[in-house]
Specification:
The protein has 205 residues and is α/β, with parallel strands linked by helices. Helix content is 36%, strand content 25%. Helix 2 packs across helix 3. The longest helix has 17 residues.
């Protein structure tokens, strides 16, 4: 593996997202996974009531996650991240079941939506760095038959992502065009995160 210049600088991911863990580990980082388990629905509802936009809401969710876990690992770089999907002012959540996945994909079909991904890095309970990125995705006008086949082949894996698709797999076939950073779409703006950790001496340069 890649030698760290600061071996005592632990990196903790405050997220249960497998794709985020895969991105960090794939880039050669040793990461401790410690999901924050915050009540996202409550925070989203509060933000909606206060007329906060989707980017502000995603940033707040990321911050709440990193802050909660930073209290447990004060010396570590704690990464909290959140992704939200906005389609014409409608915020879509992860589907709770396959019926909800069908509904989400029918809603997004033939339309453009935006993924907003925010990351917050805490150390000693203080936010050291935050970053929010956006990507626009155009979903093609696929047939009901394709939708049925897609969900049959992918199965319950679609329940782990907002919008019920996974771009790194069969979900690529749902799209006509994408404008934005690939890593941001997968749930973590990886290159800026790596840049920050290098600047802080947590990764070798």
């Amino acid at each position: 593996g890649i030698e760290s210049t600061m071996p005592d600088a632990e990196i903790v991911l405050a997220s249960a997202s497998q794709s985020r863990a895969d991105l960090l580990e794939g880039a050669g980082l040793e990461v401790l996974i410690h999901p924050a388990n915050i009540d996202e629905a409550v925070i989203k509802n509060e933000c909606r009531q206060r007329d906060k936009d989707v980017a502000t809401t995603a940033a707040q969710l990321a911050r709440e996650k990193s802050e909660k876990i930073s209290n447990l690992f004060p010396d570590a770089f704690v990464i909290g991240a959140d992704q939200m999907l906005d389609c014409g002012g409608e915020w879509l959540d992860k589907p709770v079941d396959m019926a909800a996945a069908v509904k989400s994909l029918r809603f997004l079909r033939g339309r453009t939506h935006e993924l907003v991904t925010s990351v917050s890095i805490m150390r000693s309970g203080r936010e050291q760095w935050c970053f929010t990125d956006r990507a626009k995705l155009v979903m093609r006008d696929f047939s009901d038959e394709f939708l049925e086949t897609y969900l049959h082949r992918v199965g319950e894996a679609v329940l782990s992502s907002v919008g019920a698709y996974q771009l790194e797999g069969l979900g690529a076939q749902l799209f006509e065009r994408i404008d934005g950073d690939y890593f941001t779409i997968l749930g973590l703006p990886l290159l800026p995160v790596l840049g920050y950790l290098r600047d802080e001496g947590a990764l070798s340069v």
